[in-house]
Design a protein that fits this description.
Blueprint (H helix, E strand, L loop, with lengths): L12 E2 L2 E2 L1 E2 L10 H13 L10 H21 L7 E4 L2 H15 L7 E5 L8 H10 L2 E5 L9 H7 L4 E7 L11 H11 L4 E5 L11 H4 L3 E5 L10 E5 L1 H6 L10 E4 L4 E3 L13 H17 L1 H22 L3 E2 L9 E5 L5 H10 L2 E2 L1 E3 L4 H7 L4 E5 L6 H18 L1
Parallel strand pairs: 3-15, 5-6, 5-7, 7-8, 8-9
Antiparallel strand pairs: 1-2, 4-10, 9-10, 11-12, 13-14, 14-17, 16-17
């Protein structure tokens, strides 16, 4: 698999060196077809949607609602009514946290379980919900091998458990959580337990079937799936979404407004107040079609090969701690090196043309639990190659020679 030529930005030079981009867990680059789709929208379709009686409005409305169908197909949703366009995964999780508080489904004494290595966007909204409602947030610990601790999780489950919010793939560790087992345990403990999956690091890397998973909510960001920034999708079970209240008021989310009372629109528009990111959602759909055309199973196989190559190469350099297990790992690797600051390593790699991410990766509680301030993270996408991995390994070895 070699799709590098389809991404114009990868022709960038860092000084005189070709760019090796291994910061895909933060954001992915965009193929030419996605760039073309955005230009095409503004040149040929630009209009507000749903309410216009004219030609351009009909074109834009049709393209926007076809984008919703594309997202539903991508996630294997039961209906496009279950697809809510958002500004990203963070916005989707905040939407759920807000409406659960408004609905009264989460109340004082209820418990919300999150993983210790969760992204801040899957911690802070639940903290805010707990502050508003009196619910209790409880972290699920990891094993000594830095994997999901199912036994500890099962001990935490109890009659007060109301919500479990987990990343499908950890953005700090790359571990793939056993989400189906996690969901099954939650429902065995209490059938009405709600489960939200943070799909930010899984959606671009493996097939996802929300009906097969059996979760209640699934959120992802468009910019991590080769789409535009400021876009995303929240999927929720239709029955549950119908039960929950809207979270923002304005145009489009209403059926009828009087000063005495407002009645709300049906799904999905109840959750999409105001003019949406029309261009962004249409372009996101182009990105999803691009990924689907290549095939998520093929992408997963390719990225797993790159990840194993990187893991083995880092081991051969020596003196590096690779966080998390060798197996059951997503398309990213985080490392620490004794007496070497992650920022210094990342800076030297940048000077050699290798782009990685350094820092706490929005997982400060997890980093604190390890007694570190951050890691150096290498993360992969469908356009990366074995040559990218070999260059990154060569540059890592050279950088560590200078820093040790």
């Amino acid at each position: 698999m070699n799709h590098r030529a389809e991404f114009p930005i990868l022709e960038t030079k860092v000084g005189k060196r070709p760019l090796v981009y291994l910061d895909n867990a933060a954001t992915t680059h965009k193929p030419q077809c996605v760039l073309d789709a955005e230009r095409r929208y503004y040149e040929q379709q630009n209009s507000n949607i749903h309410r216009g009686a004219h030609y351009l409005s009909r074109l834009a409305t049709e393209a926007h609602e076809q984008a919703r169908e594309t997202a539903a197909d991508f996630l294997h949703a039961a209906s496009s009514r279950e697809i809510i366009f958002t500004a990203g995964c963070t916005a989707g999780i905040n939407l759920v946290a807000s409406v659960l508080g408004l609905s009264g489904l989460v109340k004082a004494g209820d418990e919300i379980l999150v993983t210790t290595d969760a992204h801040h966007s899957n911690i802070v909204p639940w903290q805010m919900l707990s502050e508003r409602t009196g619910a209790i947030l409880r972290p699920i610990p990891l094993t000594e091998a830095l994997t999901f601790d199912r036994e500890a999780y099962q001990r935490l489950l109890g009659p007060a458990t109301r919500l479990v919010a987990i990343p499908y793939v950890s953005n700090a560790l790359g571990i793939i959580n056993p989400v189906q087992e996690i969901i099954a345990d939650a429902r065995t403990n209490r059938p009405d337990t709600l489960v939200l999956i943070d799909g930010a690091q899984s959606t671009a890397h493996m097939p996802v079937d929300v009906q097969a998973l059996g979760c209640d909510f699934y959120a992802f960001s468009g910019h991590k799936v080769y789409g535009p920034t400021g876009t995303g999708v929240l999927w929720g079970r239709e029955e549950l979404l119908n039960q929950l209240p809207p979270w923002q008021g304005g145009g489009e989310m209403i059926s009828e407004v009087t000063f005495a009372k407002t009645t709300y629109n049906g799904l999905p528009f109840k959750y999409e107040a105001g003019t949406p990111n029309i261009a962004g959602n249409i372009v996101l759909a182009e990105a999803l079609r691009y990924v689907r055309k290549i095939g998520l199973s093929a992408i997963e196989t390719h990225e797993q090969e790159l990840t194993r190559r990187m893991y083995n190469g880092l081991e051969s350099i020596g003196g590096i701690r690779i966080l998390g297990p060798r197996e059951k790992r997503g398309a990213l690797i985080s490392i620490t090196v004794p007496h070497v600051h992650h920022y210094d390593l990342g800076t030297l790699l940048d000077q050699m043309g290798v782009a990685v991410r350094t820092g706490h990766h929005c997982c400060q509680p997890f980093m604190q639990s390890l007694g570190i301030t951050g890691t150096t993270r290498y993360s992969f996408a469908l356009y990366n190659t074995a040559e990218d991995v070999d260059r990154a390994l060569e540059c890592t070895a050279r950088a560590l020679e200078m820093l040790r």
